[in-house]
Design a protein that fits this description.
- The chain is α/β, with parallel strands linked by helices.
- The protein folds into 3 domains: about 5-115, Aconitase, domain 4 (Alpha-Beta Barrel); about 140-330, Rossmann fold (3-Layer(aba) Sandwich), CATH 3.40.50; about 335-380.
- It has 15 helices and 15 strands.
- The protein is globular and about 80 Å long.
Length: about 375
Amino acid sequence: MKRVIKAPARLDRVTKNLVKRLKHGEIAIICHEDIDMLAARELINAGVVAVINALSSATGNLPPDGVATLISCGIPVIDEVGEKIFEVVQDGDIVLVNTLTGSVECNGVVFNGKPLTESELAVKTDAFSKRVGDIVKAFVENTIDYIQREGVEVLTARVPELKLKTDLVGKHVLIVVRGRGCEDDLKTIMAYVRDKRPVLIGVDGGADLLLKFGLKPDIVIGDMDSVSDRALELARDIVVHAYPDGRAPGIKRINELGLQASVLPVRGTSEDAAMLLAYAGGASLIVAVGTHTGFLEFLEKGRKGMASTFLVRLRVGHLLVDAKGVSQLYSGKLKLWHIALLLLIGAIIALVVVKVSPYSLSLLRAIMLWFFVRLEKIFSFIF
């Protein structure tokens, strides 16, 4: 790892927005408490040479897996430089980073941060291990409390009917969420997508993942905080996820773009809303990629419970196929024995054809004669 790094910087308080603009060889300046694994992977894929965080990248409230991944890839992380850096640095400014001392200099101003090391991450991991019991207890209590208060309504409430251009009745529906392993999992099920041609629903940034794979989203749903303008403009339908009382902050952006959208007021997360939309629309099968289902995933998103997701899955479970992690089960790569088996089958078919057709036998003999003449010329040339 270099002691001093000098490179142009690009900054954003929202990491998932920043990674869309980052260029290879730049320094990422973020404001992200407890960097999660998804954010770390996207920063790595963007080709950053350093990460400067205004906040703490590893507080001890979560396992520091994201930061550990960055450091293991040789990307230095300078922590807790303070939010004033967003007032001094502009996109494209040259920033000088001392990876040993943690000092960050730009436009004549020096910020003092903390360079994270593997030994410090070990301390953070230990801190989380000591607190995990209390964290789990609070998480479970919050989940149970929500189920007791809202459970019956979430399971039985009528989902508002929306007038969409996209027909869902009797169709397979693929819901894509920007979550851990979403890109690998989508790549693994592309054969299914090409074969069944399901209705494609992108949940916020999941719509941009569909575009990355050359797929145009039929429906974009969410609070519109991380989806690109292009994905919104290409979608057949836009559905803004609203609070149960009808408030929909995301509609402001849609209006500014001059687009039309439907509003879906339901409890839970946007991915919960996507599943309820497909369910209420009459889908025959719901396939989900990148959804959040684990305890740590919800903590990474800042959620204190997972009651709504649990309840929604109870409601749509008979239609749901969760493709999360499917890429770890099957690689989809062509193996040598696949080729050998194909050649063997071809040889058997050729022998059967020759057996029943005298003309084919004559043709095969002519091909073999041509092959051996060519082979003889090659060997005579070599030797």
